[in-house]
Amino acid sequence: KRQLDKDNIEIISIQFLEFDTSGKLIVLNQDDTYADTSLTNGDIATFKSISRDLDPALPIEDQLNLLPGGVQVTLRAKSVDQATGEEKIVSNRITWSYTNGCDEVPLNE
User: What's the rounded Cα separation, in Å, for the pair 28 and 13?
Assistant: First the structure.
């Protein structure tokens, strides 16, 4: 089994999804800004959360359509084997959820 050349990987697409708080994985926000891109080691990709539209003057209960319960980021990358010229496309998906509880211990203090 061959390993990917980690020094020769190009990110070719990133998708950012935010899901609602119901647990039914209803998409509140989809950002495909980087659907067709070329990023390499050291490049930065940023996304705006739907929560940026929350109004601090309104109760959170009235804005649940703007409150993400989780996120999924899907990355697709291309790697070219320097010896053979063989091109491989790989995909990785990471998902996390929010408790939206102020009394929860953070992941990193």
Answer: 20
Phi, psi at 85, each rounded to 5°: 80, 0
- pTM more than 0.70: yes
Give just the sign of the alpha carbon dihedral 104, 71, 39, 52. negative
Cα dihedral across residues 83, 84, 85, 90: positive or negative: negative
Of the pLDDT bands very low, low, confident and very high (cuts 50, 70, 90), residue 82 is: confident
Q: What residues contact 19, with CB distance under 8 A and at least 6 apart?
A: 25, 26, 27, 28, 68, 69, 70, 71, 72
